[in-house]
Design goal:
Number of helices: 0
Helix content: under 10%
Order of helices and strands: EEEEEEEEEEE
Distance between the termini: 40 Å
Radius of gyration: 13 Å
Shape: globular
């Protein structure tokens, strides 16, 4: 019943911006935290950003601090990732995730995952 669907990915030139969206559906689906992870080719999935759904607390990995902004719209049941000043190192498949408890970088507390969406940054 619960589902996460990412959108907004694509190809962008280095220095440009892109906004990812993650829409949650399901009548009884009520996560406490939502976050974004990404996976580079040949690498393990890594944490990008997370946000608490009952407050304004957010967390970012060092490589995206001051460039990415995670936000939420609970009425639309949607979480966004605004990505600015993109560089080629940001090229990856981005995954939306939903979980429980306080903000965490651990994937083990994210029980629901989207299918992933490709972001490619060209130089």
């Amino acid at each position: 019943q619960a589902q996460l669907v990412e959108s907004g990915g694509g190809l962008v030139q280095a220095g440009g911006s892109l906004r990812l969206s993650c829409a949650a559906s399901g009548r009884t689906f009520s996560p406490e935290i939502m976050g974004w992870f990404r996976q580079h080719p040949g690498k393990e999935r890594e944490f990008v950003a997370a946000i608490y759904l009952s407050g304004h607390a957010a967390d970012y990995t060092d490589s995206v601090k001051d460039r990415f902004t995670i936000s939420r719209d609970n009425a639309k049941r949607t979480v966004y990732l605004e990505m600015n000043n993109l560089n080629t190192d940001d090229t990856a498949v981005y995954y939306c995730a939903a979980g429980t408890g306080g903000i965490t970088r651990s994937p083990f507390r994210y029980g629901y995952w989207g299918q992933g969406i490709q972001v490619t940054v060209s130089s």
